[in-house]
Amino acid sequence: MSGFIQQLINGIHVGSIYALIALGYTMVYGIVKLINFAHGDILMMGAYFGLFSITVLHLPFGLAIVVAMAACALVGMLIDVIAYKPLRNAPRISALITALGVSLFLENFFRVIFGAEPKKMPNIPSLEGGFVLGTIKLSYVTVLTVILSIVFMVALQFVVKKTKVGKAMRAVSEDKEAARLMGVNVNKTISITFALGSALGALGGVLYSVAYYQVEPYMGIMPGLKAFVAAVLGGIGIIPGAMLGGFVMGLIESLSKGYISSSWSNAIVFGILILVLLFKPSGILGKNVREKV
Amino acid sequence: MLKVDNIEVYYGAIHAIKGVSFEVKKGQIVSLIGANGAGKTTIMHTVSGLIKPQTGTISFSGTDISNVRAHTIVEMGMAHVPEGRRVFSKMTVKENLEMGAYSRKDKADLEADYEMVYTRFPRLKERRKQLAGTMSGGEQQMLAIARALMSKPKLMLLDEPSMGLAPILVDEVFSIIKDINKSGTTILLVEQNAHKALNIADQAYVLETGNVVLSGEAKKMLDNEQVKKAYLG
Ligand SMILES: Nc1ncnc2c1ncn2[C@@H]1O[C@H](COP(=O)(O)OP(=O)(O)OP(=O)(O)O)[C@@H](O)[C@H]1O
Ligand SMILES: [Mg+2]
What we know:
The structure holds two protein chains of two kinds. By secondary structure, chain A is mostly helical.
């Protein structure tokens, strides 16, 4: 029983990181219908920016997170403006291939600058230890990760539902022309979406590197792919779906690691993608809203 | 208020508008009529800045807007009710109205304007929390007009607002347009329903394959043999 609870804790921990990353995929897909395959690398960059802030700038952990999020928000907008914006009216496959190219570029760019050797994320003294109950361990890192993720998800939900910029994002994702006729600057709104998604991705990256202590140029690939599966699982383009998908994904991964085998857990995770695409391509929360014409 | 001077518009190699000029004076209702594919929607899109003319100029309240972006033109006081309504179907009625007010800088009388719109369209008030996509076609058309009103436009463009509506609703739409005009908004109206459009318009222009073939006082056109034969059945 305590083993099971431990797996649940682990699953929720990693799941909340997947959820943060999945949000970026789903927001960008929602607004420009692009699977931004470079989004996993935002996680990697967030980890590097976080590491740099802590080890070189000697910033406290909280501030390092802020720096990483801000830096990635900027990089996210730049990626959109440089790589995707010129292709806005091109066939979707062009943008998709470009996204793969951006991903390879970022990974190799960071490898050239920082080397392929994994860097060690230092221990954060204030985050060492945790709550222990018998054999169950709930580390402070887990607690912080889950709390921060939930806080930012709630904040994002508020932005999208209630604020002017959030409404503009939803309007643009439905009908760009009609949004322009309302006075919405579509390109600016898309930029903001990339910025928000990338900032959440950076948060995920820092939290990921704190949990696994390692920072390296290819670290974004696997969690990026899993977060993408999570976004599809929840219903791509649907924000609460990405959150739900992330947690479900984390739990499935950790339970299959615990009870089936860790070498099979990735296969199971990607098997889920295939099953979702076969049986409910619109995802858990995706429903076909009936629209009158 | 609006002056369109000899514009030409292309879609790639397709020459859709071949030198069209017309004018909308302050306080008027001006109607563009013409068969399917004549270029009415293209002209509306060009006026509101969604597409750019290859040549020619468009001036709005004395400013050349030929190269101004659509979202800026809205801020200058032009609202466009597009063909096919184009309400945001996954947003609520209220949120659609809020999008209509997106460009407004004056927040002061915003609440009063929601009330004004709700008074004009009581159905929208009842349905303000409903998703726009689940409303009937007629309700969506009312919402599209109400949404445009929320920007407090000086000039309102309406592209086939009566399309697909039951006759009783068609009458309602036309009386709403007259009302809006009476309360001070200038109107540029595109219609298939030439009879009704000419009845409420001051000036009218007849389009054929990208050219203006006839123009003049709307009431007189109702008696024009050519117009009668082609558009009034
Ligand atoms: N996006 C486009 N790409 C290419 N050609 C277009 C495009 N939009 C319109 N056209 C062409 O331009 C011409 C004018 O079209 P437009 O939609 O302006 O006509 P309309 O008068 O509004 O017709 P309707 O009464 O059917 O709405 C048509 O020949 C049409 O095929
Ligand atoms: Mg048309």
